[in-house]
Design brief:
The protein has 123 residues and is mainly β. The protein contains no helices and nine strands. The protein has one domain: Immunoglobulin-like. The strands form three sheets. Strands 6-5-8-9 form a four-stranded antiparallel sheet, with no helix packed on it. It is elongated and about 45 Å long.
Amino acid sequence: MRRFHVPSTPSGGPRFTVAAAALALAGFSPVFSQGSSGLSELISWTIPTTQGDGTALTDLAGFNVYYGTNVDAPTSVLNVPSPVATSATVTGLTTGTWYFWVSAYDTDGNESPLPGSPVSKTL
């Protein structure tokens, strides 16, 4: 089993650490915006750089942004197939409260579990 780790953000923000063939993400700070065709959200995060044992994370493949209106479970996913991406825009949202989670995945398809607490935004 591989274990990945990302140091806390420079601002001292929250950090997610996970194990068991999963990747860890640093806490991410959402930036909210309204798009021209409906409502949209710009979600940003910090790229993981090390594994749980402290060695370099060299096989990061991308990120998934999960979202939905249920705080207990996302209903949609936006795949971001880039290991250097630090944000993604979720479009086509409607008014209401939306919840967002970010996971990372490696080239072998191992994906981090979703953080226990989503980021939320009421539009």
